[in-house]
Structure formats: structure tokens, C-alpha cells
């Protein structure tokens, strides 16, 4: 594996981040110039813009017949977002969980994760299923816009009003600059996605591992860097509900838009490997399901829960490495996780949830 491939990988990630920033900046300012409320911009343009690297990479991989990278990017990003990003953010400061997330958005995420798993269970996400997922995104976005228009909490509006890129310039010069941001951002995203997919494929071949594992790890972590920056900075600045909302919104976008559009435009949909069906997709659904009891226990993600998330991400990564190498320790590691660690965690969460429910008036 040459240094040039590594350089292409790093360059691809950097271009994806730069392209996403340009796209979000230009689109946000155009929306503001059109008189769209900052709250709606934050919930739609910005939230979806941070997931544009995943979209660019998966569509590019799908069109080039590299389905494992396209699917692995979606699954891996969703696992990475919850376990690594929320875990790290909670270690910095306990995260406040908005009640809407608990009552609506997380249940929707769980339902969509299960639906996506079911779509994949026959070995392919076809075009019709992809269009169904994308239709779900349109419905969800419409709901967000309708809800934002009825938002009465001044603090929520103030949270979005203070962002540095919210101001819209309605002058001709302002329009040209913002359109240029959008066009340049899209072009850089396309270039970055090509570099990342090409280098990731070369790395998989050089290491002798499957493209799925590369998609689940290197590609997923690389395309999730905008979410890493957004959530961790929000946590450091005390905007802790934004840190959680960013992750949930990004995961929904990955399933509904990234997987949906990729399956819709790829010539034969998105083929799904047996390994993804039997292991990675169930893990993704379980991670979404695990959010619910943790989120509603006191409406706070505590530091110990963040540590638990990070521990599970480390265990998941170790499993992928052992599986890729067909290491002798794989059966023992799997048994320990299946028979001890996971049941103990489920029992702990069940007890905490039961206490939280009984403690409410």
C-alpha cells in the first residue's frame, strides 16, 4: 500500500469536509435571503448538509458498482454517530436530551432502522424501496418545517439566530457569492468522494479485507467528520441539545436520503452482503434501539453512558478487525460479548429505565 493511496484517502476526507462547509454556508445564506426562518434552516439545510459527504460517497460508490462501500458507509456512519460521537460528547459534558427526540425522533429512527434492515433482508435494496425511503425523508422534512413554524420557545429561536452564517445577503453580489459557494461545494464533494472511494477500495485490496469492512470503518468515520465537529463543538459550547439532535437527524438522513437515493439511482439498486444482513444491520438497529432507554432516563446522557457507548464502539471495531483477519480469538470474543457483556448491559439499562419510570409522578 503506497503513500499515495494514503494521501488520496486523507485528501478525499479533507475535500468532503470543505465541500460540505461550502454547500451549507451558501445554501443557508440563500435560504436566509429568501426569508426562511433560521430555525427551519438549521433543522433542514444545515442538518442535512453535514451528511452530504455520506450522500456523495454512497451515490458515487453505488453508480460505480461498489455496493459494499455504499452500504457500509451508511451502516457504519449510523453506528459511529451514536456510539462514538455521542459517547465522546457525553464524556465532555452530560448531554441534555430534548423531549421531542425521546417522544418522536428516536422512535422514528428506530422504526426507519428496522424498515431499512427489512428492505436489506432479501439481499438487495431495489429502486422501489429506495424511493419509499426517500419519500419518508420528504414527509419527515415537511413535518419539521410545519413544527418549526409553530415553535414558540424564544430560546430555541435564539439558538439558531446566533449562528455566524445565518445572515442572508439579498444583493446581486451576495446571490452570486452564495451560488458560487453551493456550486463549488458540490464540485468539491464530488471530487472528494471519488478520491475517498478509490483510495478506500485500493486499501481494501492491499489489506486483503472486504470493501464492506472498509466502508464500515475508514469511510464511515471519514464521512462523519462534519458531525464529529458539529456535535463536539456544540457540547463544548454548552449547546448540548444540538449535539444530540445533530446525531439523530444525521442518522435519519443517512437511511432515508443516502440509502434511498443510492438505491434509486444505482442501475441495479444496492446489493446487500450476507455479512451485513446477519451482523452489521442488526447492530445498527440495536444501537438505535439502545438510544431510547438511555435518552429517557432523566432526559440526560450521563458520562458513564457516554463511556458505555465508546466501549461498545471499541468492541464493534475489534470484532470487525478479528473478523477481517479470521483471527483465532474471534469465537471467544464473540461468546464473551454475546453471553456476558450484552446481557449485562441490557439488564443494567432495564433496571435504570424501570427506576426512571417509577420515579416520575
Overview of this protein structure:
The protein has 361 residues and is mainly α. It has one domain: Up-down Bundle (A middle domain of Talin 1). The chain contains 14 helices and four strands. It has helices spanning 3-33, 38-49, 52-63, 67-92, 99-120, 127-149, 154-161, 172-207, 211-223, 225-236, 240-265, 274-296, 303-325, 330-359; strands spanning 95-96, 124-125, 270-271, 300-301. Helix 4 packs antiparallel against helix 13 and helix 5 (99-120) packs parallel to helix 11 (240-265). The model has no long low-confidence stretch (mean pLDDT 79).
Write the layout of secondary structure elements.
Layout: H1 3-33, H2 38-49, H3 52-63, H4 67-92, E1 95-96, H5 99-120, E2 124-125, H6 127-149, H7 154-161, H8 172-207, H9 211-223, H10 225-236, H11 240-265, E3 270-271, H12 274-296, E4 300-301, H13 303-325, H14 330-359
Antiparallel strand pairs: 1-4, 2-3
Précis, in short:
The protein has a single domain (3-359), classed as A middle domain of Talin 1 (Up-down Bundle). Helix content is 82%, strand content 2%.
What labels describe this entry?
361 residues, mainly alpha, A middle domain of Talin 1, two-stranded antiparallel sheet, 14 helices, 4 strands
CATH level 1 name: Mainly Alpha
| SS summary, helix count | 14
Low-confidence stretches: none
Order of helices and strands: HHHHEHEHHHHHHEHEHH
Which CATH architecture would you pick?
Answer: Up-down Bundle
Structural class: mainly alpha
The beta-strand count equals: 4
The CATH topology label is A middle domain of Talin 1
Strand content: under 5%
Amino acid at each position: 500500500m503506497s503513500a499515495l493511496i494514503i494521501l488520496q484517502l486523507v485528501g478525499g476526507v479533507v475535500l468532503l469536509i470543505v465541500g460540505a462547509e461550502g454547500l451549507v454556508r451558501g445554501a443557508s445564506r440563500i435560504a436566509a435571503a429568501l426569508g426562511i426562518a433560521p430555525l427551519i434552516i438549521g433543522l433542514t439545510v444545515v442538518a442535512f448538509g453535514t451528511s452530504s459527504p455520506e450522500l456523495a460517497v454512497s451515490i458515487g460508490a453505488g453508480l460505480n458498482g461498489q455496493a459494499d462501500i455504499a452500504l457500509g458507509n451508511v451502516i457504519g456512519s449510523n453506528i459511529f454517530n451514536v456510539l462514538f460521537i455521542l459517547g465522546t460528547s457525553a464524556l465532555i459534558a452530560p448531554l441534555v436530551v430534548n423531549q421531542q427526540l425521546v417522544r418522536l425522533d428516536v422512535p422514528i429512527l428506530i422504526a426507519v432502522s428496522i424498515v431499512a434492515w427489512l428492505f436489506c433482508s432479501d439481499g438487495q435494496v431495489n429502486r422501489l424501496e429506495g424511493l419509499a425511503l426517500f419519500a419518508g425523508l420528504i414527509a419527515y422534512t415537511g413535518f419539521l418545517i410545519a413544527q418549526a413554524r409553530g415553535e414558540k420557545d424564544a430560546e430555541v429561536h435564539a439558538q439558531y439566530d446566533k449562528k455566524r452564517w445565518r445572515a442572508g445577503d439579498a444583493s446581486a453580489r451576495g446571490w452570486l457569492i452564495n451560488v458560487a459557494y453551493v456550486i463549488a461545494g458540490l464540485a468539491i464533494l464530488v471530487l472528494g468522494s471519488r478520491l475517498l472511494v478509490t483510495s478506500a477500495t485500493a486499501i481494501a485490496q492491499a489489506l486483503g479485507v472486504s470493501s464492506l469492512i472498509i466502508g464500515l470503518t475508514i469511510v464511515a468515520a471519514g464521512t462523519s467528520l462534519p458531525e464529529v465537529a458539529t456535535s463536539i463543538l456544540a457540547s463544548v459550547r454548552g449547546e448540548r441539545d444540538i449535539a444530540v439532535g445533530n446525531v439523530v437527524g444525521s442518522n435519519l438522513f443517512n437511511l432515508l436520503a443516502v440509502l434511498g437515493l443510492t438505491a434509486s439511482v444505482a442501475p441495479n439498486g444496492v446489493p446487500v452482503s450476507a455479512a451485513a444482513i446477519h451482523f452489521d444491520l442488526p447492530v445498527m438497529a440495536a444501537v438505535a434501539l439502545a438510544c431510547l432507554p438511555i435518552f429517557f432516563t432523566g432526559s440526560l446522557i450521563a458520562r458513564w453512558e457516554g463511556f458505555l457507548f465508546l466501549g461498545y464502539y471499541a468492541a464493534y471495531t475489534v470484532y470487525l478487525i478479528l473478523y477481517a483477519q479470521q483471527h483465532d480469538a474471534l469465537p471467544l470474543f464473540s461468546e464473551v460479548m454475546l453471553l456476558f457483556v450484552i446481557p449485562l448491559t441490557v439488564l443494567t439499562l432495564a433496571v435504570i429505565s424501570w427506576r426512571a419510570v417509577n420515579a416520575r409522578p
